[in-house]
Amino acid sequence: MNRRAFAVTIVLALAVAFVSLNLIAANTLKGARLDLTQDRLYSLSSGTRTILGGLNEPVELKLYWSRSAAAERPALRAYAARVREMLQTYAARSRDMVRIVEVDPERYSAAEDEAVRAGLEPIDRTGAGDPIYLGVVGSNAVDEKVVAPVLPPEREPFLEYDLTRIVSELEEPQRLTIALVTALPIADAAPPYWLAELRRAAKVERVAPDFTALPDDADLLLVVHPPLLNEAQLVALDQFVMAKGRAVIAVDPAAVLAAGATPLDATMAPPPAASQLDKLLGAWGVSVTPDIVMDRAAALPLTAGAPPNPLFFEVTPERIARDDVVTAALRRPVNLLAAGALLWTPPAGVTVTPLLQTTRDTLRAPPAVAAAAPSSQDILAAWRSADRVETVAARVSGALPSAFASTAPLKRAVSRAEVVVLADVDTLDDRLYVDPRTGPARDNASFLLNAIDVLGGSDELVSLRSRAPSLRRLSALDDVTRAALATRKAAQARLEQDLATVDARLAQLRLARATDAEPSAAEIAEFERIQRRADDMRAELRSIERAARQEVERRERLVVLLDVWAPPVLVALIGLVVFWLRMRRVDRKAPRRTP
Amino acid sequence: MRALSAVYRRELASYLATPTAYVFIAVFLFAAGAFTFEIGDFFGQGRADLGPFFAAQPWLLMVFLPALSMRAWAEERRAGTDELLLTLPAPTWSLTLGKFLAAWTLATLAIALTAPLWITVNVLGHPDNGAIAAAYVATVLMAGAYVAIGTALSAVTGAQVVAFVLAVLVGFLFTALGAPSTLSFARTLGPNLADILGAISILGHYETAQRGVLDLRALIFFVSLIAFFLYATAVAVEAKRGG
After folding, report:
1. Average model confidence (pLDDT) for chain A?
2. pLDDT (mean) for A341-367
3. Which residues on chain A are in Cβ contact (under 8 Å) with B24?
4. Using CB atoms, which residue from B19, B44, B133 is nearest to A575?
5. What residue numbers bound the domain in which A295 lies?
6. Residues A412 and A271 grouped into a single domain
7. CB contact at 8 A, A421 and A281
8. Looking at the predicted complex, does its ipTM rise above 0.85?
9. Do A250 and A459 contact (CB within 8 A), yes or no?
10. Smallest Cα–Cα separation from B106: which of B230, B31, B8?
């Protein structure tokens, strides 16, 4: 073999070695990565790692992402890349149990049919052009499927929750069993909306009023307006929370609508006007005020056409916890009627997170006020705002102590319990949120169903909290735009007020002209002056807008000058100087060499 | 080691003595800025990160770095200094490594001079500096890969223009192998093919780093790619020495 052939052989052998090395690395070194992002965006929570580590069967996560349809949507593309990276992190941490497949469901393709069949939804239905899908379908070895129909960027804080949930449900597909304790007269044939929905997703076992124990197979305890419970029944509830650690509790110092309900048959006691679970909640450091809360700023009319009554108020999305997975998905307000307020001083190891809160314009009143149903005029006439935000629903999590620690056999079986407490029962009455023709108009039922849904997950899943979003804005430029908008808005309000005065004066002048035969010179002058003033005002508004745009553009130009033009010009100048110095040196040496 | 250091210093000095290096850096800086602001629509996106800048880097460096590395060996031949160089008592590896390191230093300098962009996003917002630092580290590694490809082809061909064209071509192949369209096409031919292409593509390994995650596999890929092309360079030089 000659030298050249030998060299070529060596290089070819090395090329094979290079490819093999990288293939082996690709398959064996998954997960050996350093997440250098400040918020550890691509590191998984311990709950997720536990779930991935415990997988017994392989799971396939199919990412449906309309890459080609989203070519013009850079923000969405960046978010899709974030989702893809996150999925790859799952695969990397799963000991090859999670496989990631990516599909582009292009319009009218087989992949799109498949996506739609699996239940995927376009990310925004309003947009023109081809539908854009960004969702995940998980499937396991027996082809069971769990779907995240859409992963919108605004839900990024819960991306890990949504993905882990798919994996968790594929590993342990289970139907939740719920033990329901309630004094509400519920006819099986005509259940309230929330119960009908709940029965579609879970098995609901209603316990008899004289129960002594809760069903063994129940995973979650749901207490809605409980009757007065005896000691043994309270112990049963307490022991359930100690053993299973999951409960959703709705009590009310003034259950206005429930109190008016008629029992299903004459032998049954009518539902109580108030309910409490003070013994249990007290042990966790939580209490519901015996007084009801009214909210003037969020008041709603009790009947159509009536003035808003602070007894009946809404919690709008701004006052719904956005960073808790229980409430993050709620987009519509939750209506409440004569709700109680939650107070808490939790023991060590227990945390209380407010989920639904009122405005500051609140007032507490004895429950008798609700029963008397005063008119809004009466309430508002006597209104003395407490200037206090009240919490009407909260999540209580941690090592909840038993209320019967000294007597009950079971101290605590779960390390971490999760309970959602709601201080209003009327909120679950259909009359408060369900439109008979169109269905629920508010998120009252969604609040309860989401809480049950989230709490029904495994310990690891429930432990996942919201994460910092990856999107960071150019806030300095946003600030300029926002400030300009605020200035414009203020100017607009001021100018519109001025314009209204000017218009009124113009109308006056016109009226005067209609009655008088000839307007006076002074009137004509004033008319013209006022018209000029109106024109000036409009011009002023335009100039404020222009100034704002110019300020942003000025900053952008400065940035382009400093980042695009300055560095190359500087380098070129340095090059010129170096070259010029070299030339001079060569010139100086040159005469000495030539005689 | 002394030989390596001498070769490295001689190469770096010769780069900086000609206007080529300055022109190269100036044009690269301008192109990087223009890609970020014009094509990447930096202001339109309004994000406090350097996503548009890093996204353009594989394609920019793929074209620019061969222009820098093409002279590494071909220039010696043109100037007739190659024979002198090869008869020096310096081992082949020190010549190869010295020339490579000098070109890589210059590439790193060019990348470092884009720092005003990093400062800008910090002035205009609160970017994830950890993620940006990771992306810069990966960019420098990727630049090393393109420089290694360029020097190898400069040693093999001995003509600057040919070296440039071939280096862009080889660089393009390694880059485009990881492009989403290539991978989805490869997937139709066989799922394993896509995995293989992904494992040896520059784009695939660079993508993760762009978002702030340094993967050991990417590190192994870039280092092994550089090592392979440096070895190929050394084999080519050795063949000339012997022949």
Report:
1. 87
2. 94
3. none
4. B19
5. 177-455
6. yes
7. yes
8. yes
9. no
10. B8
